[in-house]
Amino acid sequence: MKNNIIIAGVPRAGKSTVSHILSQEYGYQHVSIPFYMSVDGEYSFYAIDTEDNGAILSGYEPEFEEADKVADSFEDFMSKVLSGDIVL
Questions:
Q1: Tens digits of per-residue pLDDT, 12-54?
Q2: N or C: which end of the chain has fewer CB atoms below 10 A?
Q3: Which residues make Cβ contacts (< 8 Å) with residue 57, sequence separation at least 6?
């Protein structure tokens, strides 16, 4: 079973610092700013990756931490949604 870590707190509380430490020392993938989560069928999410200039990542159970890059930007993501390349 895989564990997920959610780091929450008020602005400027050090959330990014903690996530970078977890990423570097323990190999966790830093995923930031989820904007779409689904529990229909399997758990999945889309998120903005703050470490890759706003690229859009997609992850799903059971390997949430192995998120895949699906678009270079939010604009690119929305274009793929509107064209049917990505189905939400």
A1: 777 778 877 887 888 776 656 778 888 877 788 898 887 778 8
A2: N
A3: 31, 46, 47, 48, 49, 67, 68, 69, 70
